[in-house]
Amino acid sequence: MQWNAADPLSLFLACTISGLLIPVPEDLALLAAGWAIKTGEATEAPILLAGIAGVGLRDAIAFYAGRLVAGQAGRWAWLDRLARSGRVERARGMFVRHGPAMIGAARFAIGMRAPLYFAAGMLGTRSRSFLFADGIGLCLSTPLTLYLGWRFGDQAAAFLQEALSHQRALIGGGLVALLLYQLWRRRLPA
């Protein structure tokens, strides 16, 4: 099956697997779908519903996968050590105090959503709180991303084509930045 930004089923599947099976944020698919709406290839309501449903399903999968892994902490020594570390307790405290706000803010953190939602599940965030905060975030960010694709789709396509033509340099630069960050972080006192 070839991906088509104007097809609601394709958009739903692309949004569901983004960040889980492929390391690409759903924003790219939503931007392309917004452009398909502007060019008349797609209709607003089915695309909006497919985007919200796909992203919501992906978020729920990441959250409940975190819950599943947390329940298995005693089975794996490395995970058991992590679960008993002070870092996890500090993170758990942050999620208890700021959970819904963190979940809502993560909606606007491209590339960090699935890992943050996984962590929220692993740290015991209540399902009701997660689903409520994520639902509000979805209802705000999905239409906004579709609008940005509708409004700036032609410029985004040109930018993406230019970025892809320089992907080796971008990936290399990203790896160098990550390495430098790791080296810098190790030099800081704990």
Helical residue percent band: over 70%
Oligomer: single chain
In the predicted model, the low-confidence regions spanning at least 5 consecutive residues are none
Strand content: under 5%
User: What characteristic shape results from the CA principal axes?
Assistant: globular
Distance between the termini: 50 Å
Order of helix and strand elements from N to C terminus: HHHHHHHH
Structural class: mainly alpha
Question: Which sheet architecture does the biggest sheet show?
Answer: none
How would you state the average pLDDT, rounded? 79
Number of E-type strands: 0
Number of helices: 8
Radius of gyration: 19 Å
Question: Would you mind describing this structure in some detail?
Answer:
This protein has 190 residues and is an all-alpha fold. Helices cover 78% and strands 0% of the residues. It has helices spanning 8-17, 26-38, 44-71, 77-83, 86-106, 113-122, 127-165, 167-187. α1 runs parallel beside α3 (44-71) and α2 packs across α7. The protein is globular, with a radius of gyration of 19 Å. The model has no long low-confidence stretch (mean pLDDT 79).
